[in-house]
Amino acid sequence: MDLKFKLLKENSCGARLGEFQTKYGVHRTPMFMPVGTQATVKTLSPEELKMCFSDVILANTYHLWLRPGEDVVDNAGGLHEFMNYKTGPILTDCGGFQVFSLAKPKDISDEGVNFKSHIDGKKLFLTPELSIEIQNKLGADIIMSFDECPPFPVSHEYMEKSILRTISWAKRGKKVHSKNDSQALFGIVQGGEFPDLRKLSAQKTVEIGFDGYSIGGVSVGEDAETKLKMIEYATPYLPKDKLRYLMGVGEPIDLIDGVIRGIDIFDCVLPTRLARHGNALTRDGRINLRNAKYTLDLSCIEESCDCYTCKNYTKSYIRHLLVAEETFGQRLLSIHNIRFLTKLMDDIKLNIEKDTLLDFREEFVKKYNNK
């Protein structure tokens, strides 16, 4: 499926303003995508996601393969029908990140990966073909090639073998992709911290030809500077007329820095994970609403926020819910945190339009780090 990405503007710093078309309409980038691992963004309904101005959301191939199974989802008419998400596209990852966290190096071969289910210990074998076949049945609008995601750090020798395997897997997955008319297929660039391997991986993946390109293997234990270099080593070799996706990144400053380096779309479990631990994102940095100092605080989380939570509830009430272990508190924080990130992306788009993104970053970082 051709996503018809259109590059509207590119700043001298590398930031891109764009849009792409699906059957759900026009989608503006840069964009943050909330993660719904098991066909749900934790604690939130599709209506609440729409209220947060979410657009594309993610679901996890590995988890849905194990439970309830791709055939169950297919029987319901695909993920959109199964989870009643009718307002925007869904993206499924390939399952690789989860699989490689469970597998041992000796269990990885050119054919696929042997590993045990985290649920019941059952022995499983995932191949690039099977990953695509599962995603075809799940019915997401954007699906991902199966890749090896090595830990950090590994040797140059290991990483070179790994990316050649991933490139081979990408070719095999594309060959069996049976829903080209309704599902866009993305390739994934790996290469670790090595500039020559990031370049090689990007060039070889682009040669295969995909509807969009992802940069993988970041946020796997490397420091912040290395993370940014991993992006910089890959983006010059990616087509300007295709979407660029940075996988697993959601820290506010990381989103800005990723955009500055030419990334269009991002995903991360961060906003809902923080919410489950009582943390809220604000322009002044994270705050933990479990802290006793919020017991009598009748202000909202952030005065400038337009989310449902900030319009209707106080820090005092949310703290009570968290201390009492009421899940409504987690829901309220999830709503706020997702809206915080979608609003941040709106501000980023506005500053790309005005050619002021570097100034915006400077001011944002100054305030965000002064808690």
Structural descriptors:
2 domains, 15 helices, globular, 3-stranded antiparallel beta sheet, 8-stranded parallel beta sheet, alpha/beta, 15 strands, single chain, TIM Barrel, 371 residues
What does this structure look like?
By secondary structure, the protein is an alpha/beta fold. It has two domains: 6-268, Queuine tRNA-ribosyltransferase-like (TIM Barrel, Alpha-Beta Barrel); 273-364, no CATH class. Helices cover 42% and strands 16% of the residues. The protein contains 15 helices and 15 strands. Helix 6 crosses helix 7 (156-176), helix 7 runs parallel beside helix 8 (195-208) and helix 8 (195-208) packs across helix 9 (224-234). The longest helix has 27 residues, at 327-353. The termini are far apart. The model has no long low-confidence stretch (mean pLDDT 96).
Major β-sheet strand ordering: 4-13-12-11-10-9-6-5
Write down the CATH topology of the largest domain: TIM Barrel
- Count of all domains: 2
**Largest sheet properties:** 8 strands, parallel
Q: Short description, anyone?
A:
The protein is an alpha/beta fold and 371 residues long. The chain is built from 15 helices and 15 strands.
Helices and strands, with pairings:
Blueprint (H helix, E strand, L loop, with lengths): L5 E5 L5 E7 L2 E5 L1 E4 L11 H6 L5 E3 L1 H6 L3 H6 L3 H5 L6 E3 L3 H7 L10 E4 L6 E4 L1 H11 L3 E3 L11 H21 L7 E6 L5 H14 L3 E4 L8 H11 L8 E4 L5 H9 L4 E4 L1 H7 L2 E2 L6 E2 L19 H5 L2 H9 L3 H27 L3 H12 L3
Parallel strand pairs: 4-13, 5-6, 6-9, 9-10, 10-11, 11-12, 12-13
Antiparallel strand pairs: 1-2, 2-3, 7-8, 14-15
